[in-house]
Write a structure and sequence with these properties.
TIM Barrel, 42% helix, 20% strand, single chain, 2 domains, Rossmann fold, five-stranded parallel β-sheet, 14 strands, eight-stranded mixed barrel
């Protein structure tokens, strides 16, 4: 939002003294067109006049029409101007109101605690960056169950690999295998397009085995080329209940000449475990083979702490919603810090996924997380691309000072 001191400002507060103080403070920093209103209803009437879009400074706590209701009314009329929320209430209420305004599609410039001065308003307007238009969700192509079965049988569904980086040194230490469908006519499809059908057809076990077989073969190839990495593969809750799973995984490890300690199974934390006895037996046998068990998407399911207490996990993977842009989100940061502290006390390795920029990276590093995964380092790639990427990444770590070692 460009800074125009001639742009109209509308102050909304039921406290006339506070209105006068704010108006004087805004004039002192150069704003020239300032109006005041003592209620939300009066503010809506002022907006009915033909005029350039105003910047509204809106108090949350007002009689009759409070701030949240005014936000809804503004959204209903498609208000195009900027909004700054002000309040003497708890800071958490301000943050909640910001989220509400943005959920309505309003241009929320920020929130300020009372007393408000003109310099703060000036700083918010200068710092504001309009949200990028949201892309519409991609339309899933029409896929038949026959196509899907053929894809699994013929190896069209294959692993792409996202690097896992040691946080303190910046060293490449592992990869996560992520399913992609190289469709003969539609290009590379993400799991968004086919995973629901895989689940509905009861083919998750076949997909897991396909991913394990292909990625273990790739891991052997990397090792022969001098890349000593650990491999992580996702396993769903239903597959964990199969008592033959340890034997089948052991057979794949033996076939590819890979030891169990090189493999991590990431179990989605929100997955419903139907047969706890079978799952406990499977996980115990996998642990005896040296395989690492990781609880994936930690913090997004209802049973997080229960899962940790009753299942033999040795790695905790924190969901991206508590990592990306966490520096600007106090609640997410508190959850991130608490999760890392919990894992440390339990003697678990920690992985933060979703680090998409340098700020995310530095914060996770500073909190003592063991490994980082996310677009800041790399997007998922085909196996053949990993070695060239690793060379470029090592140069980048040195050039950008990404190591803390």
């Amino acid at each position: 939002m460009s800074l125009d001191l001639n742009r109209p400002i509308l102050l909304i507060d039921d406290d006339s003294f506070m209105l006068n103080v704010m108006a004087a403070s805004l004039k002192a920093v150069g704003f020239r067109q300032i109006e005041t209103r003592g209620s939300g209803a009066a503010a809506l009437e002022a907006l009915d006049r033909p005029q350039p879009p105003m910047i509204l400074l809106c108090d949350l706590q007002m009689p009759e029409m409070d701030g949240p209701e005014l936000l809804r009314r503004l959204a209903d009329r498609g208000y195009p101007g900027g909004v700054i929320l002000i309040s003497g209430e708890d800071r958490r209420i301000l943050r909640l109101s910001e989220r509400l305004g943005r959920a309505h599609g309003l241009e929320i410039l920020g929130a300020l605690e009372k007393p408000v001065d003109g310099a703060q308003v000036l700083a918010l307007i200068r710092a504001f960056k309009p949200a990028q238009p949201k892309r519409s969700a991609p339309q899933a192509p029409e896929i038949t169950d026959i196509e899907l079965r053929v894809a699994l049988r013929e190896g069209q569904i294959l692993p792409f690999y996202q690097p896992k980086i040691e946080a303190q040194t910046g060293a490449l230490v592992g990869v996560e295998a992520l399913a992609r469908w190289r469709h003969p006519s539609r290009g590379v499809l993400s799991p968004f397009f086919f995973l629901p059908m895989v689940e509905s057809l009861g083919l998750m076990g076949a997909l897991v085995e396909r991913m394990l077989n292909a990625s273990l073969a790739q891991l052997r190839g990397w090792r022969e080329a001098g890349l000593d990495l650990k491999l992580a593969v996702n396993v769903d809750a239903d597959t964990l209940g199969r008592l033959d799973l340890p034997r089948r995984i052991e057979g794949l490890l033996r076939a590819h000449g890979v030891e169990g300690r090189a493999l991590t199974l990431e179990i989605t934390e929100s997955g419903a475990i139907q047969d706890i006895k079978a799952t406990l037996e499977t996980l115990t046998r996998l642990s005896l083979k040296g395989i690492t068990l990781s609880i994936d998407d930690f913090g997004t399911g209802y049973a997080s702490l229960e899962q940790l207490s009753r299942l033999p996990f040795s790695e905790l993977k924190i969901d991206r919603m508590f990592v990306h842009d966490v520096a600007a989100n106090e609640s997410a940061r508190a959850i991130l810090e608490t999760s890392l502290e919990l894992a440390q006390r339990l003697g678990m390795t920690t992985v933060a996924e979703g680090a998409e920029n340098l700020t995310d990276w530095r914060l996770v590093q500073s909190l003592g997380c063991h490994q980082i995964q996310g677009f800041f380092a790399a997007q998922p790639m085909e196996g053949a691309a990993l070695s060239p990427w690793a060379s470029v990444w090592a140069q980048r770590v040195r050039a950008e000072g990404l190591s803390q070692a």
